[in-house]
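#lab-general

N.A. 3:47 PM
ok so I finally got the sequence cleaned up, no stray characters, all 130 residues accounted for. can someone with queue access submit it? mine expired

B.Y. 3:52 PM
send it over

N.A. 3:53 PM
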Amino acid sequence: MTRARNPLSVEVTVPREDIALVAVEGHLDLDTATEFQHQLANQLHHGRRHFLLDLSAVPFMDSSGMNIVLRVYQEARGVSGSVHVIAPAPAVRRILDLTGVSITVPVSETVDDALALVGTAPQAAPDPRT
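B.Y. 4:20 PM
back already:
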């Protein structure tokens, strides 16, 4: 008997020009992580610096998903941005906690909480040469 593949749904909204709210639904694993990565790369390409990753509808995430979260975190930091995980399902939260990802990437319970953190996130210091 073969297992049915769990498709991944990724929906992106832009609450502010520099913020991408990325709602993910489904298993985030080796089979589906590429779609998630492409969506995030596209948003970076379009100038988004802050990423709110709503993982409330992700019942399972393996190391492939975690690596993408960490990669977008590094890329966002490179452009003075940020990444916030929103309302991860219990199994996903456990993985984030066990691996220490939740120490590096802030976890919020709601979109509003994450948006408030983006508003207070340290910004890059202005270049004194300009």
